[in-house]
Design a protein that fits this description.
The complex is a heterodimer of chains A (121) and B (359). Chain A has 121 residues and is α/β, with parallel strands linked by helices. Chain A has two helices and six strands, in the order E-H-E-E-E-E-H-E. Chain A is globular. Chain A starts with a strand and ends in a 31-residue tail after the last strand. In chain B, strand 7 (301-310) and strand 8 (315-321) form a beta hairpin. Chain B has helices spanning 56-61, 68-83, 89-117, 121-142, 162-188, 190-196, 204-209, 215-218, 249-272, 323-334, 343-349, 354-357; strands at residues 4-8, 20-26, 29-36, 151-152, 155-156, 289-298, 301-310, 315-321. In chain B, the strands form three sheets. In chain B, strands 1-2-3 form a three-stranded antiparallel β-sheet, with no helix packed on it. A three-stranded antiparallel β-sheet of chain B has the order 6-7-8. Chain B has a two-stranded antiparallel sheet with strand order 4-5. Classes of the chains: A alpha/beta (121), B alpha+beta (359).
Chain lengths: 121, 359
């Protein structure tokens, strides 16, 4: 894959993201994928057209620290992941609570097979 | 001062895109803007589960009609790199010609809409009249005006004959002449400047920090254009990113206006360097396996594709990040502090495409 990939953990994520920001990197976006019962998140950063990825492999049922406090731009993509993968983010600056794209009555998680969620009251 | 909450959209006379903004206003000054999306979300990424990797080109083109060609290029390049398919040089150059024609008609469409946003109907119609020539080129060379569907994995499915090339060159010469005739109006007219200069200002630092893309980023003084990475055959062409430094609505419109002329120049360069040869490489071997991250420059900015293949004909994951998605946080940064009357112009200045955002 184009660019350098750095593995991070839930504990080291925010520190690494802070490091990227201090280095003058622009947050491009995240990409997500499923690996068994875990979710893989790639945080893509850009500086002078060079791309760097942070790779996080985390449990789907446990919250992931939000980096929206470091990069405000992260708020949309974290809300999108919340909608599409039912993954929660701790400390999200503007939390749509799974209704950025989805209606409150939706019960099926779009990108995870056979996972149902409670409709919102 | 009492706060008034004003709903903007999802249907608004000046913005034919279904996005809603909750505006908190004090004395006609916007204090806060909160977006609401999801009115037209289509779940196209999920279609990778049931469409094979060849069919997904057609799905990717439908992420956005206006950027359809460049979506297809980004997707095709990703699959080709994963599978180790070498695209013929002629196909690479043809992709550039149609991509730049798309950028040209997208910007002309937007310039017309922008003029319409502040009530300059005559200018709106002039930009759209000129755009028709580009649409006619698309139709004559591919069979379609908007979604041209020329890309296949390994190259392209359509060619340009010498007669068509001569006709394209004569048409873009007329387009250039007519666009230049409107330059003074869109860039220097008193009415236009009074609605755009100093409105929706975003500094270079803010643009970078908020993750802006495309003309929104370049209008704030950042010389970032994915074509500079030299993907496809862009490395063989001579150009510099179009940059303005004011960071306001005027700067963003000027970047797009100058990029129309830049695209015309790139079409000419690509035609001059168009080599003879095959249109496509036959795709052999196993379906794509592994992961890839690809970026291209669309009319609205940097578009990102992340693809994970598992060796079957269905992709494991297709992730698309469109430029409007990247430009929504900058929009939320621009709106606070502006007058309520300037909101439509500022929203339009990022060239929002909600169809893209809610792929």
């Amino acid at each position: 894959m184009q660019g350098k990939v750095i593995d991070v953990t839930v504990d080291s994520l925010v520190g690494e993201v802070m490091h990227m920001k201090n280095d003058g990197q622009r947050l491009v976006t995240y990409s997500t994928y499923q690996e068994g019962d875990k979710i893989g998140i790639l945080y893509h950063f850009d500086k002078n057209l060079e791309i760097t990825h942070l790779r996080l492999l985390a449990d789907m049922d446990k919250p992931i620290p939000s980096v929206s406090g470091v990069y405000f731009a992260a708020l949309l993509v974290e809300n999108e992941i919340r909608d599409q993968w039912d993954v929660k983010f701790d400390g999200l600056v503007l939390d749509f609570n799974r209704t950025l794209y989805l209606d409150p009555e939706v019960t099926q998680v779009p990108l995870v097979s056979n996972v149902k969620i409670e409709p919102k009251k | 001062m009492a706060t008034t909450v004003i709903p903007f959209g999802p249907q608004h006379p000046v913005l034919p895109e279904p996005v809603h903004l909750t505006l908190k206003v004090e004395d006609e000054i916007v204090k806060e803007a909160i977006p609401a999306l999801g009115y037209v979300h289509r779940g196209l990424e999920k279609l990778a589960d049931i469409r094979d990797y060849h069919q997904m080109i057609n799905v990717c083109e439908r992420v956005c009609g206006i950027c359809s060609m460049i979506h297809a290029v980004c997707y095709s390049q990703s699959i080709e790199e994963l599978m180790g398919v070498e695209v013929p040089d002629r196909a690479k150059m043809l992709r550039i010609i149609w991509s730049e024609l798309h950028r040209c008609h997208s910007h002309l469409l937007w310039l017309g809409l922008f003029a319409d946003a502040f009530g300059f109907e005559a200018l709106f119609m002039q930009f759209w009249r000129v755009r028709e020539r580009i649409m006619d080129i698309n139709e004559a060379t591919t069979g379609s005006r908007v979604i041209v569907s020329v890309n296949v994995i390994g190259g392209v499915r359509a060619d340009l004959s010498p007669e068509q090339i001569r006709w394209i060159l004569s048409e873009i010469e007329i387009v250039e002449k007519e666009v230049r005739a409107m330059q003074d109006t869109i860039m220097n007219d008193y009415t236009v400047k009074s609605r755009t200069v100093g409105i929706g200002v975003m500094t270079k630092e803010q643009a970078w920090e908020l993750g802006a893309a495309g003309p929104t980023l370049r209008g704030s003084g950042v010389a970032q254009d994915m074509r500079m990475t030299g993907y496809g055959a862009y490395g063989e062409l001579d150009f510099e990113p179009v940059v303005e430094t004011a960071g306001d609505c005027w700067a963003r419109s000027t970047v797009r206006f100058r990029e129309v002329l830049q695209s015309i120049d790139l079409v000419r360069q690509a035609i001059a360097k168009l080599p003879e040869g095959e249109l496509a490489t036959k795709v052999k071997g196993n379906p794509p396996e592994g992961e890839i991250f690809t970026r291209v420059e669309q009319p609205r900015g940097e578009c990102v594709y992340y693809i994970r293949g598992n060796g079957t004909k269905h992709l494991d994951r297709l992730r698309i990040r469109t430029p409007t998605f990247a430009n929504i946080p900058p929009l939320l940064g621009m709106l606070p502090g502006c007058e309520l009357a300037d909101v439509p112009v500022i929203v339009l200045s990022i060239d929002p495409c909600i169809s893209c955002t809610e792929r």
